[in-house]
Amino acid sequence: QLQLVESGGGLVQPGGSLRLSCAASGGTLDDYFIGWFRQAPGKEREGLSCISTSAVSTYYTDSVKGRFTISRDNAKNTVYLQMNNLKPEDTASYYCAARRSSCSSFRSAFRSWGQGTQVTVSS
Fold first, then answer.
1. What is the rounded CA–CA span in Å between residue 115 and residue 65?
2. 37 near 50, Cβ under 8 Å?
């Protein structure tokens, strides 16, 4: 059973940067398409980005396009989300998720989830 663990969250000032990691165990991550999602209090879980198995294709929602970059290192069984120019509205719990067939922006499409890492953007 694939298990995912996110890390790298924290408190950062507006305009700052963080790099989130999604480390996998119990399986080979390069068999999976990986998505990053976030959920703020009182809001629905939102799909942010997705990367294909070989990293040839990446997708971003409009609100993070140009600021966030998804990447993967299959040798390390890890996917990253580099977040630059962070804004207070980026404050949320961030989750990675895995599926085999394709990228998707829909939460329901993913079966394997990490426990989340908190990102707080505040001065």
1. 24
2. no
CA nearest neighbour of 97 among 15, 13, 36, 18: 36
What are the beta bridge partners of residue 16?
Answer: none
Which pLDDT tens digit goes with each residue over 39-61?
Answer: 999 999 999 999 999 999 999 99
Residue-wise DSSP of 94-113: EEEEEESS---S-GGG--EE
Rounded Cα distance between 7 and 24, Å, is 12
pLDDT single digits (tens) 66-93: 999 999 999 999 999 999 999 999 999 9
Nearest Cα to Cα of residue 3 among 30, 23, 31, 19: 23
